[in-house]
Amino acid sequence: MQGLMRGYIRGVDAVNYRLGRVAMYGIFVLMAILLWSSVSKTFFLPTLWTLEMAQFVMVGYYVLGGPYSIQLGANVRMDLLYSEWSIRRKAWFDLITVCFLIFYLSVLLYGAVSSTAYSLGYWKDAPFSYLFGVVIGTEEVGRMERSSSAWRPYMWPIKAVMIVGFFLMLLQCVSELFKDVLRLKGQTI
After folding, report:
1. pLDDT exceeds cutoff 60 at 138
2. Is 82 or 15 the better-scoring residue by pLDDT?
3. Start and end of every Tripartite ATP-independent periplasmic transporters DctQ component domain (predicted)?
4. pTM confidence score
């Protein structure tokens, strides 16, 4: 069992590390979009797409960088008490809190899948079956959701990014849970 846990930890950590290293450069994309927005508003006709695209890039940056942040332990923590605790006590505390985080991310993932199915034009109550093709038959399909801004981009791409990001965060949290279990058993990771 410990071998499976270690394999899972290595696999998920490797994927999230690489994706996080790529996602962190999204801040430069965001800066370029905002710079172009400022230049175009000052010297040319203002562009309609820049601010909304900056929001989309920021969502991608934040959501895809989340698993990397969890992996590095760069999340906010109350170090007033935590820093003085033993490794075993930290592992117990982290084990409990990561369970709450897993529940929260599961709810976010369900909402993201539901919202993505809606943005693709599906309005029934089983978004997973629609997105993953479990049920074939009478689906209620409508028009694809677009933003209400003047630019009117489709919403499903950024919502799909949210699904991927929440799923990877969930996988990383399970990896952290396994790390805490191994620490409690006295194993090194």
Report:
1. no
2. 15
3. 30-181
4. 0.85
